[in-house]
Amino acid sequence: MTLEQQRRFLSVALAEPLLHQELEAGEDWSTFLLLGGRGSGKTFAGARWLAQMALTVPRMALVGPTLHDVREVMVEGASGLRATSGPAFRPRWESSRRRLVWPNGAAAYAFSAEDPDSLRGPQFHAAWADEFCAWPKAAETLAMLRFGLRLGEDPRLVVTTTPRPTRALKVLMSEPGVATTRAGTAANAGNLAPRFLATLEALYGGTRLAAQELEGIVVETDGGLFRAEDLARCRGAPPAKFDRVVVAVDPPATARGDACGVVVAGRRDGRAYVLADRTMRGLSPNGWARLAVAAAVDFDADALVAEANQGGDMVRTVLAQAAPPCPIKLVRASVGKRARAEPVAALYEQGRVVHCGAFPALEEELMGLGEGDLGHSPDRADALVWALSELMLGGGKAPRLRVV
Predict the structure, then answer these.
(1) C-alpha to C-alpha distance for 191 and 331, rounded to whole angstroms
(2) Does the keyword section mention RNA-binding (predicted)?
(3) What is the dihedral angle through the alpha carbons of 238, 239, 245, 250, rounded to the nearest 10 degrees?
């Protein structure tokens, strides 16, 4: 359907969404996860997407923490489905059947995460799940919902939530076929009260609460090595030149399984600069080797530092076949992840690390190190630890790093 046709059905506000609110139908995803801060526009994004789906598919599901939340936020809220569908395509709420019906007959049925069994039996073309981290029975409800997404050629699920460090969210984020994006509250500042952001930043800026509630980052509450306040103040620009640049690689344990961690970092005058996070999931050995070598070429790296615990010399062989422009250095972990990360966390506390860009997924994993319940392998964080250990902690001479 063209933009002109959509304008006739949907409100004018939908024609100019924020970038993070664009959920393109042609993208290769079965589940789209939007992690957003408070007031970032995630409810609007979910409502906008489902209203568009109502133009083409007849049966949809709405799932919230409670039925009250579905009705008051997802349906009747200021950014809910009735508001975002516009006057010409505004749906009506049928309370007796707990469903929202559009003028063309498309219907979205309401369900509560308090009652997963209510999703047994119904089937849908699409579903919108809101505030997933507040669901009382998150994993069970999500499973029942997915069993019902079996109509049409391409059933899809959009999940919008302010993140919390729950097991269910970590598992969801690690699943194949899940596209994840993050939206900070500041991205939607134009639609918020003028003093809202300034007040909250003054009160909570640099804390874990701000990272979670304003930036949409999954953080841990206790036991983490990396503090939100240290990560918040480490943003900055890179120097004109570096003493040394490395690309650190944390290869996946299985082919097309976990992500391959690829982090680029440089050193200048006793400070480390994180330049890029090229981590990617679902690659073959040749695929992740080419990914790492491309990063080395792009940043004129002095070395490729690769963990060899899982693949041994195979890691060197695969990287060498991709024709790297610099030497390959294999490292092995002789202690656990937490012990390896402790001296790197100290560098952040000392203000000796600068992030030259926004790396929310990497920072999320760093704040989860030490908890033992990330739900997936912290490939980005592992690669960063190897990179900064090589640049700042003596590389192979450090007692916790053995070069093969």
Answers:
(1) 49
(2) no
(3) -10
**Measured between alpha carbons, how far is 29 from 23 in angstroms, rounded to an integer?**
10
Q: Could you say which of 145, 165, 191 is where a domain stops?
A: 191
Distance CA(189)–CA(36), nearest Å, equals 13
The domain that contains 93 carries what CATH number? 3.40.50.300
pTM equals 0.58
Span 197-209, pLDDT tens digits = 667 666 556 565 5
The confidence score (pLDDT) of residue 336 equals: 75
Number of domains making up the chain: 2
Q: Is residue 394 part of a domain?
A: yes
Q: How far apart are CA 231 and CA 211, in angstroms?
A: 10
Residues 154 and 273 in one domain: no
Residue 246 within a domain:
yes
Q: What is the pLDDT of residues 53-79, one digit of tens each?
A: 999 999 999 999 999 999 999 999 988
Strand pairing of 244-250 and 261-268? antiparallel
Share of the chain above pLDDT 70, in %: 77
**Residue from 215, 220, 223 nearest 185 by CA:** 215
Report the run of H or E that residue 247 belongs to, with start and end.
Answer: strand 244-250
Helix axes 360-368, 379-392, angle to 10 degrees: 90
Angle at 372 between CA 380 and CA 287, to 5 degrees: 30
Under 8 Å between Cβ of 116 and 139: no
In this predicted structure, what is the pLDDT of residue 369?
73
Which residues are registered as beta bridge partners of 62?
Answer: 110, 128
Domain CATH number, residue 316: 3.30.420.240
Helix (H, G, I), strand (E, B) or coil at 130: strand
Within a domain: 205: no
- Contact between 9 and 86 under an 8 Å Cβ cutoff? The reply is yes
Name the residue with tokens 């001296």: 343
pLDDT in tens, 260-305: 999 999 999 999 999 999 999 888 999 999 999 999 999 999 999 9
Q: What is the 8-class DSSP label of residue 225?
A: S
Distances (CA, A) of 272 to 86, 319, 354, 394: 51, 25, 6, 13
3-state secondary structure of 152: coil
Please tell me which of 4-18, 130-144, 216-230 the model is most confident about, judged by mean pLDDT: 130-144
DSSP code for 237: P
| Alpha helices per DSSP H over 35-77 | 42-53, 67-69
pLDDT value for 2 = 52
